[in-house]
């Protein structure tokens, strides 16, 4: 059976087994996954990809660290900015809290500086070295 990826609208049968009703979702036989990072890791492992560097515990740990960095240092402040600047205004008629937006933009600026420093030290998507995180 081929893997199925679900977005919106999602069938009621799939939505029923997802605890948060989130998309994306992936179904591979009886296995149904949600959370994009879990889906990404599953697909990579299933296809024996080297992007997770699982053949080397130190390299694999580095991938894990950068996946966590993205999860905590980028996703959270970006979600706040999107909510305060778009969702709150468009869907709820609220007002943007400029102070909260500025605080989170500063967090993102620092995160991007760390990313730039990191990217200047590694070869990304080159033929010699690739990784997911």
Structure description:
The chain has four helices and three strands. By secondary structure, the protein is mainly alpha-helical. It folds into two domains: 4-46, Glutaredoxin; 57-119, Glutathione S-transferase Yfyf (Class Pi), Chain A, domain 2, CATH 1.20.1050.10. It has a three-stranded antiparallel β-sheet with strand order 1-2-3, with helices on one face. A hairpin with a 2-residue loop joins strand 2 (25-28) and strand 3.
Helix content: 55-70%
- C-alpha Rg (nearest Å): 18 Å
Total count of domains: 2
What shape does the CA trace take?
flat
Largest sheet, described in full?
Answer: 3 strands, antiparallel
Gap between N and C termini, in Å?
29 Å
Spans of at least 5 consecutive residues with low confidence: none
CATH topology annotation of the largest domain: Glutathione S-transferase Yfyf (Class Pi), Chain A, domain 2
Which structural class do you get from the secondary structure elements?
mainly alpha
- Elements, N to C (H/E): EHEEHHH
pLDDT averaged residue by residue: 85
Instruction: Assign the CATH architecture of the largest domain.
Output: Up-down Bundle
CATH class of the largest domain: Mainly Alpha
Strand content: 5-15%
User: What is the topology, as strand order, of the major beta sheet?
Assistant: 1-2-3
Q: Helix tally?
A: 4
Give the strand tally.
3
């Amino acid at each position: 059976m081929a893997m199925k990826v679900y977005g919106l609208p999602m069938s009621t049968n799939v939505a029923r087994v997802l605890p948060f009703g989130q998309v994306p979702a992936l179904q591979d036989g009886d296995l149904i996954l949600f959370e994009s990072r879990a889906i990404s890791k599953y697909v990579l492992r299933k296809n024996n990809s080297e992007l997770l560097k699982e053949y080397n515990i130190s390299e694999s740990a580095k991938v894990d660290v950068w996946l966590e960095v993205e999860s905590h240092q980028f996703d959270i402040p970006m979600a706040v900015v999107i909510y305060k600047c778009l969702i709150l205004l468009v869907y709820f008629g609220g007002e943007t809290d400029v102070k909260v937006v500025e605080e989170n933009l500063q967090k993102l600026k620092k995160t991007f500086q760390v990313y730039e420093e990191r990217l200047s030290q590694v070869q990304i998507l080159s033929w010699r070295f690739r990784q997911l995180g």
